[in-house]
Amino acid sequence: MENFNIFIRSIFVDNMIFAYFLGMCSFLAVSKNVRTAFGLGIAVTFMLTITLPINYLLETYVLKAGALTWLGPEYADVDLSFLSLIVFIAVIASMTQLVEMAVERYAPALYASLGIFLPLIAVNCAILGGSLFMQQREWTSVWTAVCAGGGWGIGWLLAITGIAAMRERIAQYSNIPGPLRGVGITFILTALMGIAFMSFLGIKI
Amino acid sequence: MAEKISSGSVLFNPFSKNNPVIVQILGICSVLAVTAKLEPAIVMGLSVIVVLAFSNVIISLIRNTIPVNIRIIVQLVVVATLVVVVSQLLQAYAYDVSKQLSVFIGLIITNCILMGRLEAFAMANKPWPSFLDGIGNGVGYAIILVIVGFFRELLGSGTLLGYQVVPEALYEAGYVNNGLMILPPMALIVVACIIWVHRSYNKDLQEK
């Protein structure tokens, strides 16, 4: 039940885009049409769900202060947490590479539709951000990390699909002042959606 | 790629014409998150300038020895190392600010400005122009951060760098701080306004 709550929280209350504003660059760059936006969203969800538990395990059993106690009592005061950034980014970059190869080999159709986005994901701040938030929260089980990762991914997917749908319509039907066209209006749209998502802030689950 | 680019244009173009934030649309995440107050915005700007300049130089020095297939990982490792150094320095000498910036110093690693400049410039140019490019883009980024931070702190809290600027008398006359400005969505609106102003002066940047 606890984990389910965290899953729902991560989608709406802690939404990566509208609450933390992470993963903005690809959010703004790839939201011109719904199809590609959805594809990138799926890829991000997938990567978050995989990398968050891996990084959680690394954090708990290798990096945290005193995490190496299971090797023997003499390791109890080893603190490797200053390495966490490098370890996390290495995990994310190599997982991206691995997933890319696996998808290419076993699901060529999916690869054809996601192909170009997979390498981009290594530098999507939402993924690293997820791992860094994980470090600050005190979760007790790896399933929590899976749920939070999935939730954050789905939240990101919802956000990018929504904004892409709006941008498609706006490009067709509305007469925006020249300087605001394209990027400018997308910023304002995102801001308005962000304010709308703030209504979830008060919800305690 | 070997065309002659003058050092001046490499250094000054990113200030306005080719600004990383409002023209190239890179590094938005941190612009929104750290600009509620002016001070963290300045510290973040400085950190990015340092990391960007030095990672540009390092990548440019080793650009001919990096295998193309794994260049992203190599770039990430170089950037990550620099970011760790900066974050440890901040924790040692500016602990309060580093607490406020929390994960965002770490997120400099995935700041798209870094990857964008490394890929687009440092991989193809000599160390000195790359250094200038790093400084230029870092400053371009910092300018936007400071502008956004300035307006958000002034309108949202009535202070600048923690000092009261809006006079007491104004509050007594019924002036109220705009609480919305503290919230992250308003940063987007401020950036959108900057884009608006910037593009009305630079008509060639406007999209169809």
Structural overview:
The complex is a heterodimer of chains A (205) and B (208). Chain A is an all-alpha fold and 205 residues long. Chain A has helices at residues 2-12, 24-29, 34-63, 84-106, 108-114, 117-120, 125-136, 142-173, 183-197. The longest helix of chain A has 32 residues, at 142-173. The longest helix of chain B has 31 residues, at 127-157. Helix content of chain B is 64%, strand content 2%. Chain B is globular and about 65 Å long. Chain B has helices at 7-12, 28-33, 38-61, 71-93, 95-101, 103-106, 112-120, 127-157, 168-172, 184-201; strands at residues 159-160, 163-164. By secondary structure, chain B is mainly α. Chain B has one domain. Chain B starts with 6 loop residues before the first helix and ends in a 7-residue tail after the last helix. Chain B has 10 helices and 2 strands. The interface between A and B is large, with 47 and 45 residues.
Tell me briefly what this model is.
The complex is a heterodimer of chains A (205) and B (208). Chain A is an all-alpha fold and 205 residues long.
- The strand order across the widest sheet of chain B is 1-2
| Cα Rg of chain A | 19 Å
Residues in helices of chain A, as a percent range: 55-70%
Instruction: Give the termini distance of chain B in whole angstroms.
Output: 29 Å
Helix content of chain B: 55-70%
Distance between the termini of chain A: 10 Å
Total number of strands of chain A: 0
Q: Unreliable runs of chain B, pLDDT <50, ≥5 residues?
A: none
What letter string, H or E per element, gives the SSE order of chain A?
HHHHHHHHH
What is the global morphology of chain A?
globular
Average pLDDT figure of chain A:
83
Main beta sheet strand tally, sense and closure of chain A: none
